From TrEMBL:
Ranges for region Disordered: 1-53, 233-278
Pfam families: DUF3710 (PF12502)
Full protein name: DUF3710 domain-containing protein
Residue spans of biased composition, Low complexity class: 15-26
Protein species of origin: Corynebacterium marinum
Record-linked InterPro entries: DUF3710
Length: 278
């Protein structure tokens, strides 16, 4: 699988692919860590570097050619993501509308979220503690592994593996959460890193409280699908209410229905009351 760095300009020859330098060392946690787990955090330059995630406010995605990897770019407003081939976009619906956007692949599901962050680094280190505690609270085993951008949180359960990748940029933090069955978890890990390295984050200048997710704007095609799903949900709810509102038949009504049914059966048998005396 081709990795980074990338050739920036479309006219440039692509840079020689090099695998991520992350070692697969990990630390098992059976209790929430009292201090941040110490892992190397390689220097990442989202503005002048040759690998992402990139700062979309200063780096133009049009300067890159991801056609060897991607079938197109998913524009979510605060993120632009190179979609891998043979993947689909899934919108998770909540009670009030769209809740999450997922990238569905043959290996599993990837959920991208961009957050506002303070100017100083350290938000991902704080998040790793919270995420680890949450996994343990949900009954998962929690590991911390060294990834290309630093610590990655891995939760293992009976039915699959969850991995959370975090990368910090200028006043933003990108988080990729993967969910896969055990036998496909490593493939999804590699693919998620590929996607992360080809993602652009757009923080913008609007004030957003650090730790809050940046707003997501769905593409028009997804908007139409969401509207259709919401309309279908509303119709289902109305039908359910109408069925509940219909009164149960009274004993008299049930007897009347039975009498009518018996009369129809008698007519069909030729034993109705309209007989002729001989």
């Amino acid at each position: 699988m081709a990795l980074w760095p990338f050739g920036k300009k479309k006219d440039d020859q692509p840079a020689e692919a090099s695998p991520a330098s992350a070692e697969s060392q990990s630390t098992y946690s059976d209790a929430p860590p009292e201090v941040p787990v110490e892992f190397d955090t390689p220097h990442h330059d989202p503005v002048h570097g040759d690998t992402g995630p990139f700062d979309g406010d200063t780096v133009d995605i049009a300067d890159f050619d991801f056609s060897d990897f991607s079938q197109g770019v998913l524009d979510l407003g605060s993120m632009k993501i190179a979609l891998p081939r043979d993947s689909q976009v899934q919108v998770e619906m909540g009670e009030q509308g769209p809740k999450m956007v997922h990238i569905v692949t043959k290996f599993g599901r990837i959920t991208p979220v961009a957050f506002a962050a303070p100017s100083s680094a350290g938000q991902w280190a704080e998040s790793t503690e919270q995420i680890t505690q949450g996994m343990i609270g949900d009954g998962l085993t929690a590991d911390v592994e060294q990834g290309p951008w630093g610590a990655e949180i891995v939760g293992q359960g009976e039915h699959g593996i969850i991995r959370v990748i975090g990368v910090e940029g200028p006043r933003w933090m990108l988080r990729m959460t993967t969910t896969a069955p055990h036998d496909k978890a490593e493939d999804l890990r590699d693919l998620a890193r590929e996607i992360t390295a080809r993602t652009f984050v757009y923080r913008g200048q609007d004030p957003v409280l650090a730790g809050n997710s940046l707003p997501v704007v769905l593409p028009q095609q997804l908007v139409a699908q969401v509207q259709q799903a919401m309309e279908q949900r509303a119709q289902d709810a109305r039908r359910a209410q109408e069925q509940q509102a219909q009164p149960a038949p009274s004993p008299e009504d049930e007897q009347s229905i039975e009498d009518t049914s018996q009369a129809l059966r008698d007519l069909a048998d030729g034993s109705g009351t309209g007989t002729t005396d001989k």
